[in-house]
Write a structure and sequence with these properties.
The chain has one domain. Helix content is about 0%, strand content about 40%. The chain is built from no helices and nine strands. A seven-stranded antiparallel β-sheet has the order 4-5-3-2-1-7-8, with no helix packed on it. It has a two-stranded antiparallel ribbon with strand order 6-9. It is globular. The protein starts with 15 loop residues before the first strand and ends in a 6-residue tail after the last strand.
Length: about 130
């Protein structure tokens, strides 16, 4: 993960994770599943691969896309941006933090990186 100015980056060892958050006004939960794709070329950097996303209802300005399918109370869909270079996460003290979920356990992003109320960059990277 990247970090805010003044904070060192944090490395989280995983090949799959879910990024989750709750809409600040409508209190609707969103989840995006990612895989970290290891390069086949030596020296190349790993990539994030958005595999699936889901939302527990709709919220102001954050409606599920038209191709979303309602399953078990969640609108599920395939993200259109499948290989983002980085995820820009705007974090604020006024709303709950993003959560990173791995192996069935979710923790706030602050477990790994403190928030300064700015933007945290989440990227795929090599192990340090």
């Amino acid at each position: 993960m990247g970090s805010a100015p003044g904070h060192a980056p944090a490395f989280v060892a995983t090949d799959h994770f879910t990024l989750a958050w709750t809409h600040s006004i409508e209190k609707v939960r969103w989840e995006e599943d990612y895989a970290v794709v290891r390069p086949s070329t030596p020296g190349a950097m790993p990539q994030l691969h958005a595999t699936e996303a889901r939302v527990k209802g709709s919220a102001a300005g954050m409606e599920p896309p038209p191709d979303a399918v309602l399953q078990n109370g969640w609108f599920q869909y395939k993200p259109t941006q499948r290989f983002p270079l980085a995820l820009r996460l705007s974090r604020s003290e006024f709303v709950p933090d993003y959560e990173l979920c791995m192996n069935g356990t979710c923790r706030p992003m602050s477990h790994w990186l403190p928030s300064d109320g700015g933007v945290t960059l989440l990227t795929a990277c090599q192990a340090p």
